[in-house]
Automatic annotation (TrEMBL):
Keywords: Membrane, Transmembrane, Transmembrane helix
Stretches that traverse the bilayer: 26-46, 66-89, 101-122, 142-163, 234-253, 259-281, 288-304
Protein's name in the database: PNPLA domain-containing protein
Species lineage: Bacteria, Pseudomonadati, Bacteroidota, Chitinophagia, Chitinophagales
Key word Transmembrane present: yes
Species, as recorded: Ilyomonas limi
Length: 742
């Protein structure tokens, strides 16, 4: 038994497995990321696991998407083998004198790749069955497609290296044959030592999976052995170069749907390239690796600071011409913009819209809705659309007619803006049934795959391709991919400029939408709408009693009046509002100094601050001209959220708790703050003011839909079913009662 244990331990597969952990641990990081991603422990809130377990191609999980993903995993595995083959050359010199040394190395280096494949299949089958609700027969087809793609990649790689092996053996055959003839005599005179070098190998697998003992290679010159391995190294470098060219090509051609490969495939091929680069750094630079990496970072940073390269994203539609004077983002300039005269002028202009809204109602004192939607990726977008469709049914098709204002953040705004866009098309004469389930399906479609795919193929690897939008030229990046995909999902309904909605909003044909975002420089709101709304730039209060004022918002149209602000694309306004951290880039705006904006949720994830301020400004008009003002809050999480408190009792938790506490409780803090505002407003307006909240409540306590730009089939069903929860059902009934007793 001891002999078998010793033989197993000193077999090449086991020794290579252990060697990876002793040397070049940085290469294991890539395997950790893959394992953790598939397991749902790495970037799970961003939906990273979905990219691998349910990859999409041409808008669905299909055999092509699985084949491409399997092919990419195969490329990654071969890149791993190539790099470790090069790095561990000195420990496996006995393979140099065998036929097809690289093939034998791959077979003996298969412990981690095989473990990953088994792990992946277990996770993918479970995910497809319970999350994507795919039938068993279909799952078998998908898994077979993945395996086929993986095998194709392996065969292509081995075919390439078999050719390299034949050429090497043909050139060095005479030397190898002569050395082999001398082997038997030499080994008798100088037996193979029990252990030599960093690893001891008693057995290894041959190409036919048979067990073989390693051959003593001391009788080959060092130069000869290095010659054999260098030939393989050259072939390996060419293979990594081909992968790099492939990704660059995909980035250049990805406007065509056929080249919009699954994000998992792009990411994995990128990892394959990084492994090759990391191996090259370790092999050639050795201890100089870190200094060289730091130097490269400093060079790239200097090029970025000098403007030679520009990694910043822009808002499509406004004028970034450097020759135009940039508006000053200073305390004095912002205060001048929010002067009492300017605020009053905008207020009077909006009063005309309020009067136009009232004229369109059938009652002398109608009900007014203000709709506030929360952030939350596709989860919130889908829930918002489902709620609005049900509300349209409850109000007998008059929801949008009674709605004056829509505000909010991120995913909720995607759903609400799409619903209003459909209503606008209906107003213009299109045959649209706002309650059609297809619209909820459209807004729920995947946005994550093109984002991550474009991040790899365009932002990192690809050339700086440009495009024209509304008369100006911009660079294609993942923000461009997001807008293109969202436009495709919503059938072009929102492919408009702010100017295209201006007249309809002013005449109250459709509700006014405010696309807030957060200025990273100081946390103020960037208030984006189709007209100046300077009366929202600060909290409303009685100036005879309170003298101090703090401006916490910037009116976009007024501030960028010389930059063609109404030419801003609605899709860009939405993207500025929904800049999901890291997934989408922040948007920089041409001011002096330059400012950039982030997700509106950082400042107000629920949109209520805007609605409460609006009600305060127009309180007198609302009391005189409406019977009720109803704030409809649509949120993607339960109020209070007692079921998911922030807890971390681990040792590391004591260190990270101060950092994570604010992030985990950010939305709760906003809720508590806004409840104070709500209390003040409710007391001020009395029975005239109502506020109802629709909440996404998952059917299972610990199984809510993911906070990302992707939803599984089961998550879509769960979100739709949430409308029938007791809390939401009671709310729908209460609104119906109020509408019937106007």
């Amino acid at each position: 038994m001891k002999r078998y244990i010793t033989g197993f331990y000193f077999s090449l597969p086991v020794q290579l497995f252990l060697l990876h952990f002793r040397r070049y641990q940085v290469l294991l990081i890539f395997w950790y990321v893959l394992f953790a991603t598939v397991d749902g422990n790495f970037l799970q809130p961003y939906g990273a696991d979905t990219l691998y377990l349910a990859p999409e191609y041409w808008g669905s999980v299909n055999t092509s998407s699985m084949t491409l993903t399997g092919f990419a995993i195969g490329i990654f595995v071969m890149s791993w083998n190539i790099t470790t083959f090069i790095l561990h050359t000195k420990h496996i010199r006995f393979l140099a004198t065998t036929a097809q040394p690289f093939l034998k190395f791959c077979i003996n280096n298969a412990v981690i790749p095989l473990a990953f494949l088994i792990f992946y299949f277990i996770k993918a089958i479970k995910y497809d069955a319970y999350e994507e609700l795919i039938p068993a027969g279909r799952i078998v087809v998908l898994m077979s497609s993945f395996l086929a793609g993986f095998i194709i990649a392996i065969f292509i790689a081995f075919g390439y290296f078999f050719g390299a092996d034949k050429n090497i053996y043909r050139r060095l055959r005479a030397t190898i044959t002569k050395a082999n003839e001398q082997y038997s005599t030499a080994i008798l005179q100088n037996p193979l030592p029990l252990y030599r070098g960093e690893i001891r190998v008693l057995w290894f697998f041959s190409a036919s999976l048979g067990l073989r003992k390693p051959r003593d290679v001391r009788h080959y010159s060092e130069e000869f052995l290095n010659t054999i391995f260098k030939q393989h190294h050259l072939a390996a470098v060419l293979a990594v170069l081909l992968a790099f060219i492939f990704l660059v090509s995909v980035g250049y051609l990805s406007d065509s749907t056929i080249f919009q490969i699954p994000a998992a495939a792009s990411i994995t091929i990128f990892f394959a390239i990084l492994i090759g680069v990391a191996g090259a750094f370790s092999l050639f630079l050795k201890s100089w690796s870190i200094p060289v990496i730091i130097l490269l970072y400093l060079i790239i940073n200097a090029l970025n600071d000098s403007g030679v390269i520009d990694l910043r994203n822009r808002a499509y539609g406004i004028n970034y011409n450097k020759n135009l004077p940039a508006p000053a983002y200073t305390k004095e300039a912002i205060e001048a913009m929010a002067s009492p005269a300017n605020m009053e002028a905008d207020k009077q202009a909006f009063l005309q819209t309020l009067n136009a809204w009232k004229a369109r109602q059938k009652e002398d004192k109608p009900v007014m809705f203000l709709i506030d939607v929360s952030g939350g990726g596709n989860r919130s977008a889908a829930f918002t659309m489902n709620v609005l469709q049900r509300l349209d049914s409850v109000t007998h098709g008059t929801l949008m007619q009674h709605t004056m204002l829509i505000s909010g953040a991120s995913g909720g705004m995607l759903g609400a803006t799409y619903f209003r866009g459909l209503y606008f098309e209906k107003v213009k004469g299109s045959n649209i049934n706002l309650q059609n389930h297809q619209y909820a399906e459209n807004i729920s479609r995947d946005l994550l795959n093109p984002l991550f795919s474009s991040f790899i193929t365009r932002d990192i690897m690809g050339p700086a391709a440009t495009f024209n939008a509304y008369g100006y030229e911009y660079v294609k990046d993942r923000a461009y991919a997001f807008e293109q995909k969202f436009n495709h999902n919503t059938k072009g309904v929102l492919n408009k400029r702010l100017a295209d909605y201006r007249d309809a909003e002013m005449q109250a044909q459709i509700p006014t939408i405010i696309f807030n975002s957060t200025i990273s420089r100081d946390g103020r709101k960037m208030i984006v709408s189709t007209r100046p709304l300077r009366f929202l730039m600060q909290a409303y209060f009685d100036t005879t009693k309170v003298s101090a004022k703090e401006i916490d918002g910037v009116d976009f149209v007024s501030f960028f009046k010389d930059r063609n602000p109404l030419n801003l694309g609605v899709l860009s306004a939405l993207r500025m509002n929904a800049t999901f951290p890291y997934v989408l880039p922040s948007v920089w705006l041409p001011s002096d100094p330059v400012i950039d904006v982030l997700d509106a949720g950082l400042r107000d994830n629920f949109g209520q601050e805007t609605s409460f301020r609006f009600v305060s400004v127009f309180k007198d008009w609302l009391e005189q001209n409406t019977s009720k003002v109803i704030v409809l809050q649509i949120r993607d999480r339960q109020s209070g959220d007692w079921d998911r408190p922030f807890e971390n009792n681990s040792l590391s938790g004591f260190i990270t708790k101060p950092l994570m506490l604010m992030q985990s409780n950010w939305f709760r803090i906003q809720t508590y703050y806004q409840l104070g505002q709500l209390d003040y407003l409710s007391e001020s307006m009395g029975q005239h003011f109502y506020r109802f909240s629709f909440q996404y409540i998952p059917s299972k306590k610990d199984a809510s839909a993911s906070l990302s730009f992707h939803l599984t089939a089961s998550e879509k069903k769960d979100i739709a079913a949430s409308l029938n929860s007791s809390i939401n059902t009671d709310t729908f009934n209460e609104i119906k009662r109020l509408m019937e007793n106007k």
